Amino acid sequence: MSSVSTSSLLLTSRPHGESGAVIRFLTEKGLQAGYVQGAKSRHRRPLLLAGNQLQASWRNKAGYSLPSIQIELLHSRASMITDPLRALVLGWICPFTASILPEAQPEPRIFSALNHLLNITEKSIQPIVSLAELVRFELLLLSELGYGLSLSRCIFTGKSDNLTWVSPKHHAAVSQQVAQGHEAKLLPLPQFLQKKRGHTEDHIPDWLALQQGLRLSGFFLSRHFNSFYHRRLFSARDRLIRHITKFFIKA
């Protein structure tokens, strides 16, 4: 049996037996599930919060039995659960990511992007910054799982200017000129999703653009992950959006 020890992001934890827990966590090498003993102890319980960065160690087992996972805390995100917006982001994106990724397939881009999203959400004093990053991460999930959107050129003309809409049928951008008269069948493309990635703060959207981004990623997520199980998870995203709406209306 080979041994593994790697940095990981905890996505979900559910009780198992009298004192254990089954956890699902993400590493650069992919999604992994395992069993943690003593999960209800005073020492272990704070470690098993969604979003925590852990050093996870285990021995691979033959067959389908879950490996026993040894965990050490690298970075706690416990402070996020005391803030309603941050807690809602955690409550949506961690379980959803765990639900759609295949196990044990390398996901270095998703691992890096999720860690970045959680860092931004934890530290940024501007909610709109972390929410824009959430939209980018949702679109990355779609792309990495084979449902990516082509937003750099118009699907019909091949040109890269005046891209203002997205075709649900083609998963691609549409220019303003081509879209005329067909807007009802298209989704708005906010400008912040067209810019190349740099410092996130350089591309802060306004409230309208953020709404458009959330609608865009949400439309394609719900289209491609529409099982009963996934629809239950989308209720967490709905709660997040309701909270965001109240926040910005008050502001």
Condensed summary:
With 251 residues, this protein is α+β, with helices and mostly antiparallel strands. It has helices spanning 84-100, 108-123, 127-144, 176-179, 207-224, 228-250; strands at residues 3-16, 20-27, 30-36, 53-59, 70-75, 150-154, 163-167, 172-175, 187-188. The chain folds into two domains: 3-76, OB fold (Dihydrolipoamide Acetyltransferase, E2P) (Beta Barrel), CATH 2.40.50; 81-250, Recombination protein O, C-terminal domain (de novo design (two linked rop proteins), Up-down Bundle), CATH 1.20.1440.
Keyphrases for this structure?
251 residues; alpha+beta; OB fold (Dihydrolipoamide Acetyltransferase, E2P); de novo design (two linked rop proteins); 2 domains; four-stranded mixed β-sheet; 38% helix; elongated
Structure write-up:
The longest helix is centred in the last third of the chain and has 23 residues, at 228-250. The protein is elongated and about 60 Å long. With 251 residues, it is an alpha+beta fold. It has helices spanning 84-100, 108-123, 127-144, 176-179, 207-224, 228-250; strands at residues 3-16, 20-27, 30-36, 53-59, 70-75, 150-154, 163-167, 172-175, 187-188. The chain is 38% helix and 23% strand. The chain folds into 2 domains: 3-76, Nucleic acid-binding proteins (OB fold (Dihydrolipoamide Acetyltransferase, E2P)); 81-250, de novo design (two linked rop proteins), CATH 1.20.1440. It contains 6 helices and 9 strands; from the N terminus they run βββββαααβββαβαα. A 5-stranded antiparallel beta sheet has the order 3-2-1-4-5. It starts with a strand and ends with a helix.
